[in-house]
């Protein structure tokens, strides 16, 4: 035990920076630990967290999988603290634009049904689970600052937290339209968390005409959901076809046809010039670049996301690809600070580049890899094949439920197999070599 702990200390530079810390790690005897906790409490009465050895900032998808991995290695109880901006224990975020948005008469998903790690068919980690495992949860109090010398964090409410090892798991925030174009009018929605989804549902209940801004996967999932609510739905996007970063034009055309058969209208090659309000101050419609006007009492914006790095910018952890730069074990350049999930800019070995991946499979796997590397002698670097999926029109009564998956990267020439009736696959072939760069399957 002693040598394993010392090796880990050396590997990750973990320490609570106290004269007694090395003895602490060498002696796991309970009475000593009790003494140590009282010592910390007495010496530093201002720290608001009891569990200080490992602190995760962010209580989302990757935090839930990280917590599970800490528990698997017997390192959670009394040691792990999760600090979250949200009011809920970690959950499987993709549900928010799928089952969660089902109309109220078609059995919508709700918490606690989709807490992590149900997305991997593992145990559902409800708030009670965290309690039972001795994991300290601090809710609704985002971290706003860090002092890497003192190994402390400050929170929005003014709390001071101590960490030995810090894992940054803050994910992304939705990109928004500027206030001056009406991007924050009542009736304009973005969707990133349960609070956003609840607010959107209360607007869906009253809405008649919906404009979705953005033809990416979030836009297409909410457009499908709006059809489930039987709403007049128009999707506006600047490109020639939907999902331009992922789909070929041939694939997109077939996908668009399915949406059109379900009643969705598309306005392509167009962007929003202004979101107009009515006499009640709520959204009344959108004015497009060509000055045409689409009436709407609900606008849902899905124009991408930005990594949530702001509390850590002051310590120089950001990368040119926008996130927090880490190595193949999710370690940043600062000893004892790691980053996982959407926010991490990591070496994507298979394509030999630094990447961020904003998808749930990576959130889960990066969390597990990071925590295993932290707590064990594992030295493998993360070797990841990007994987991403979407599911639409899944509600009861939908004429056709649809599910697709991507693996890899979309580089090179494409070969399409199948005709979308009922299935289709697209392969990307790069420099004459068949790698499975991307596989697309529609059911
Ligand atoms: C609506 C929606 C649908 C999606 N659907 C799919 C899908 O179908 N397929 C797919 O592959 N991926 C999907 N994704 C992407 C996937 O959910 C993310 O990749 C995944 O959630 C990333 O996990 P994470 O832990 O990095 O970030 P998140 O799950 O976003 O968690 C980050 C957490 O950190 C909190 N936080 C942020 N800043 C702070 C701070 N300063 N202090 C404390 N807490 C903070 C946030 O509030 C949040 O709770 C979807 C994402 C969204 C938003």
UniProtKB/TrEMBL annotation:
Molecular function GO labels: monodehydroascorbate reductase (NADH) activity
Cofactor dependency: FAD
Top-level taxon: Eukaryota
Domain named FAD/NAD(P)-binding: residues: 53-366
Pfam families hit by this protein: MDHAR3-like_C, Pyr_redox_2
Protein keywords: FAD, Flavoprotein, NAD, Oxidoreductase, Redox-active center
The keyword Oxidoreductase appears for this protein: yes
Assigned EC number: 1.6.5.4
Domain Monodehydroascorbate reductase 3-like C-terminal: 385-434
Cellular compartments per GO CC: cytoplasm
Keyword NAD included in the entry's annotation: yes
InterPro entries: FAD-oxidoreductase/Apoptosis, FAD/NAD-bd_sf, FAD/NAD-binding_dom, FAD/NAD-linked_Rdtase_dimer_sf, MDHAR3-like_C
Family: Belongs to the FAD-dependent oxidoreductase family.
Protein's recorded name: monodehydroascorbate reductase (NADH)
């Amino acid at each position: 035990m002693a040598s394993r702990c010392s090796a880990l200390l050396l590997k990750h530079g973990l320490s609570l920076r106290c004269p007694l810390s090395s003895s602490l790690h060498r002696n796991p005897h309970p009475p000593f630990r009790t003494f140590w906790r009282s010592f910390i409490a007495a010496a530093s009465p201002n720290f608001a967290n009891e569990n200080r050895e490992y602190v995760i900032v962010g209580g989302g998808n990757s935090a839930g999988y990280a917590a599970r991995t800490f528990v698997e290695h017997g390192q959670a109880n009394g040691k792990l603290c999760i600090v979250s901006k949200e009011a809920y224990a970690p959950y499987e975020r993709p549900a928010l634009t799928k089952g969660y948005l089902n109309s109220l008469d078609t059995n919508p998903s709700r918490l606690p049904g989709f807490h992590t790690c149900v997305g991997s068919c593992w145990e559902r980690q409800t708030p009670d689970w965290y309690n039972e495992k001795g994991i300290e949860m601090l809710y609704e109090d985002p971290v706003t600052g860090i002092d890497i010398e003192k190994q402390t964090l400050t929170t929005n409410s003014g709390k001071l937290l101590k960490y030995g090892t810090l894992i940054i798991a803050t994910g992304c925030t939705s990109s928004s339209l500027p206030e001056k174009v009406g991007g924050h009018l009542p009736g304009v929605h973005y969707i990133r968390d349960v609070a956003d989804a609840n607010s959107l549902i209360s607007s869906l209940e009253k809405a008649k005409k919906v404009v979705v801004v953005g033809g990416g996967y979030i836009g297409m999932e909410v457009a499908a959901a709006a059809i489930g609510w039987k709403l007049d739905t128009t999707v506006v996007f600047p490109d020639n076809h939907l999902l331009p970063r992922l789909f070929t034009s041939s694939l997109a055309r077939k996908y668009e046809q399915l949406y059109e058969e379900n009643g969705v209208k598309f306005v392509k090659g167009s962007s929003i010039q202004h979101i107009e309000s009515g006499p009640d101050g709520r959204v009344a419609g959108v004015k497009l670049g060509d000055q045409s006007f689409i009436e709407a009492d609900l606008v849902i914006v899905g124009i991408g996301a930005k990594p949530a790095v702001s509390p850590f910018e002051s310590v120089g952890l950001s990368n040119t690809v926008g996130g927090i730069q880490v190595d193949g074990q999710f370690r940043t350049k600062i000893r004892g600070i790691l980053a996982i999930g959407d926010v991490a800019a990591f070496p994507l070995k298979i394509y030999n580049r630094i990447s961020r991946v904003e998808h749930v499979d990576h959130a889960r796997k990066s969390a597990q890899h990071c925590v295993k590397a932290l707590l064990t002698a594992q030295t493998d670097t993360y070797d990841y094949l990007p994987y991403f999926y979407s599911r639409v029109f899944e509600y009861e009564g939908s004429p056709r439920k649809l599910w697709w998956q991507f693996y890899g990267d979309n580089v090179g020439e494409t070969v399409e197999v199948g005709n979308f009736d009922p299935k289709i696959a697209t392969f990307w072939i790069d420099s004459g070599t068949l790698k499975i760069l991307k596989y697309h399957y529609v059911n």
